[in-house]
Hints:
Chain A contains 2 helices and 8 strands; from the N terminus they run ββαββββββα. Chain A has helices at residues 36-45, 122-126; strands spanning 15-22, 28-35, 49-52, 57-60, 69-76, 83-89, 105-108, 111-114. Chain A is globular, with a radius of gyration of 15 Å.
Amino acid sequence: MSDWLSEVRWDENGLVPVIAQDYQSGEILMFAWMNREALAATATDRVAVYWSRSRKKLWRKGEESGHTQKVHDIRLDCDEDVVLIKVEQAGGIACHTGRQSCFYRKLDQDSWQADQPVLKDPKSIYGK
Amino acid sequence: MSDWLSEVRWDENGLVPVIAQDYQSGEILMFAWMNREALAATATDRVAVYWSRSRKKLWRKGEESGHTQKVHDIRLDCDEDVVLIKVEQAGGIACHTGRQSCFYRKLDQDSWQADQPVLKDPKSIYGK
Lengths: 128, 128
């Protein structure tokens, strides 16, 4: 692949942080990581492919849940070390808890309070 | 300080990644890091205080440029390891390049293309 991948400043683990934002509402859906291969695949296939740090393998978002992310836009920040993707979220659910966004907790006084509804029971998302 | 800071899963360097989003437009302005002290100060003072990894010290956003960020909302993700803040950006400029957002480059075919205007010459932002 070409030069644009080399302009990304990969961290010491060969990864770059990625923010996924709803391309229409602007809602921030999730945060994850990509390696070079994941970003190349994301750009080619136009669907979000991340690197799972826990499973140490490529993670095609939605491969289990069906909640794929169609990629509309790929952006790079001023330091070339953070990527922003604007996506169309299948099912309207990005979070493994069954919520639209992973950022469903808000600091209220001295505690984190969930203020977004569970749209689908995670058991039915990941159940066999 | 209280418990809520301990619910954040700080990384091996004692840091957490932070996404700053415009509280009205939803535009993603920048990405940076906070340590425990920075997040505590952000919550107390209601202005964004980051940890500068290069300078290894607290960085009160806007201390030089005047482009402070008034904090409206502080959110935590499902894994407790990423923070999202919704802010009111003073001067409408978050990026040190003089642009509204740090994510001013878009992948266009095989190259990154800047598509957001410089609103203020960085020399006049940081000039003595």
